[in-house]
Amino acid sequence: MKKILKRSLKFSVSIAVITFVLAAIFSIVSNMILDGTGWLLGLFVVLIIVSTGVLFDMMGIAATAASVTPFNAMASEKVYGAKHAIRIVRNADRFATFCNDVIGDISGIISGTASTLVVIQLVIVINGGESSGLQYVIGTILTSIVAALTVGGKALGKTVAITASTDLILFAGKVVAVLEDKLHIKVLPDPKKSKKANGKVSKT
Questions:
Q1: Averaged in consecutive runs of 10 residues, what is the pLDDT profile of the chain (204 residues)?
Q2: 157 by DSSP, 3-state: which?
Q3: Where are the domains of the chain?
Q4: What is the spatial distance between Cα 169 and Cα 84, in angstroms, rounded to a whole number?
Q5: CA distance 4 to 11
Q6: pTM: predicted TM-score of the whole model, two decimal places
Q7: Within its chain, how far is the Cα of 150 from the centroid?
Q8: Distances in Å between the alpha carbon of 202 and those of 1, 10, 178, 190, 199?
Q9: Cβ-count burial 155-173 (b if 16+ within 10 Å, e if not)
Q10: Tell me, what's the pLDDT at 71?
Q11: CB 161 within 8 A of CB 104
């Protein structure tokens, strides 16, 4: 029990640190892009952020819905990314936490901030920057649109994730394979190595 709690605490702390770093990066990049740009480009950036959140939410759900069986068959046929897809499914809880909670929540927060900047830009264009009832109307409409796209997109994404989980996770496996093979970025732990490590611990 203590080992499970310790492992869970360690993972939670690492996720919190990753979230902090990614949120800062997302915020800085989005503010740099939106600073001094027109409202149309700003609206496009907001849509990209929303789409990113929807996409990662879909991938997280697909990981929890997918089965290892088809990937085992693919791995035996040496399909590229199949072994990494197996690791994703076996670490579905961690993968889903990163996709749904980290990227998904960050996208939601950043899209709200970006929407506010777009509203300010629109008010400057329409009303010369003077605060009025128009600003609240535009803000309400834009916020409602972003919320509708986010919720509607995630609802559609859930259906796609469940029905096409194998294809989505195989794609994710190929992306992870490229990151690890070409860029040498370790994404997920290798179950075989973990079992060997646990075996060594249990012998002592």
A1: 70 80 82 75 88 94 94 94 93 90 87 83 71 74 89 93 95 92 75 49 38
A2: helix
A3: 2-203
A4: 9
A5: 11
A6: 0.78
A7: 13
A8: 16, 21, 34, 19, 5
A9: eebeeebeebbbebbbebb
A10: 95
A11: no
Q: For residue 47, which amino acid is it?
A: L
CB atoms < 10 A from the CB of 174, how many?
16
Query: Cα–Cα distances in Å, from 41 out to 36, 38, 54, 111?
Result: 10, 6, 20, 14
Q: What is the rounded CA–CA span in Å between residue 33 and residue 193?
A: 42
How does 60-87 read in b/e, with b if 16+ C-beta sit within 10 Å?
bbbbbbbebebbeebbeeebebbbbbbb
Q: Which residue has the tokens 């046929």?
A: 77
Pair 59, 172: CB distance under 8 Å: yes
d(CA 89, CA 83): 10
For 92, the token pair is: 């579905």
Please report, as a single letter, which amino acid is at residue 28.
I
Q: 150-156 — which CB contacts under 8 Å span 24+ positions?
A: 150/50, 150/53, 150/54, 150/108, 150/111, 153/50, 153/51, 153/53, 153/54, 154/53, 154/54, 154/57, 154/58
Q: At what angle do helices 82-90 and 69-76 cross, to 10 degrees?
A: 150
Write the DSSP string, 70-88.
HHHHHHHTT-TTHHHHHHH
